[in-house]
Amino acid sequence: MSTPVSELEQVTIPSDVLGAYFGEVGPDFTDRVRKIGNGMVNLTLLVNHTEGNRGLVVLQRLSGMFDEGVVEDATVVAGHLAGQGWEVPETVLTRSGDTSIRDRTRSDELPQGWLWRATTFIECETPPNTANQEEYRAVGALLGRFHQSLRGLEYQPKYAIDHFHDTEHHIGELRRLQDHPEMPTWAKEMAADVLTDYERLPAIPAEASMPQLIHGDPRTGNMLFRDGEPFTLIDFDTFMVHPIWTDLGDLIRSLVEDAAEKGGELPLADIRQVVDGYRTSAELDYDPDEFFAWSLTAAQRITLELTSRFLNDTVVPYFAPDADIYPTRHHFDLERATLQRRVYNNLDQPQQGE
Fold first, then answer.
1. DSSP one-letter code for 10
2. b vs e for 313-348, b when ≥16 Cβ sit within 10 Å of the residue's Cβ?
């Protein structure tokens, strides 16, 4: 679903950005621009501009947390994937050949101005509202193929979000803050459970945890679909060199979270389809039952990481809740942390009879 930019008073494309990508444009240009996606981090616009054979272009104003390194990372990795036959958002250069541009906006919070980039547009469909085991397997298989394609790329990303998927850091912060006087009682009680659960997690063997380039945020919201099938991933802002378990665990966690937000659970049999689809597609020669057990551990680990971040947020702000929805930050933290506990409990089940 898209919204005309002319109806969004807070959205403007600076003239220097327009000129950098599209040259001279007429007063009716905003009629060919639409806001797309529901991302809370970047502003994403679809521009229908055919001059110079550019066609449809996705133009993004990146969050102030990002720098030019994130654009370089996306450019390098997308080029590698496109060379292997993937349909991915490739960087569209400015008319002067740059991969991004800073506009002339200046403020104390943003002294260098907003960073803008453009990428190619990929035709896709709305994802299905429900999923069966075949579709869960396809989602896992897509991530497996993605990892298999990235395995041969030795590239160290230039940009990294501080402590993003740094489980040990967030758990360590929770240990430090769990008795803090500003942490509410409900958060202290939940923190004790999280730390206990974390200590009892089994280890994934080191030989199965070799780091490689991964996506960093492979939820289905960052997958594109055609004919009900996922065919590619987007949102290339979080590439990192980590074990595959960071991505696979977070994919599983996000699918269980989707089910929990609808008031249900995701059966282990469905989760196994995700895992088996991944393992087969990634061409990994591991025992299926062992690999499934490691995958559940990875999902539990990243769920506890995210829960700890919401609990820590009650004392040291990390997230930015929507003030129109949540009366206080603690209301936001309570809702999100409670949801993650439901996810963890879904994952923390005996595997018999799945």
1. T
2. bbbeebeebeeeeeeebbebbbebbebbbbbbebbe
**How big is the CA angle at 235 (ends 204 and 265), to the nearest 5 degrees?**
55
Q: How far apart are CA 223 and CA 38, in angstroms?
A: 14
Token digits of residue 254: 């996000």
pLDDT digits (tens, 9 = 90+) for 239-255: 999 999 999 999 999 99
For 186, phi and psi rounded to 5 degrees? Answer: -60, -35
Spatial contact of 48 and 56, defined as CB atoms under 8 Å apart: yes
Strand-pair category, 33-35 with 43-48: antiparallel
Q: pTM value?
A: 0.92
Residue with tokens 């809370």, as numbered in its chain? 40
Rounded to a whole number of angstroms, the CA Rg of the chain reads 21
Q: Report DSSP state, residue 330.
A: H
CA distance 121 to 317: 35
- Cα distance from N-terminal residue to C-terminal residue, the chain: 38
Which range in 54-63, 95-104, 319-328 is most confidently predicted, on average pLDDT? Answer: 95-104
**Tokens representing 310?**
């919401």
Q: What are the structure tokens assigned to 239, written together?
A: 């590439």
What angle in degrees, to the nearest 10, is found between the helix axes of 288-312 and 244-261? 70
Other CB atoms within 10 Å distance of the CB of residue 11: 16
Distance CA 35, CA 269 (A): 38
| Residue among 278, 291, 232 at smallest CA distance from 251 | 278
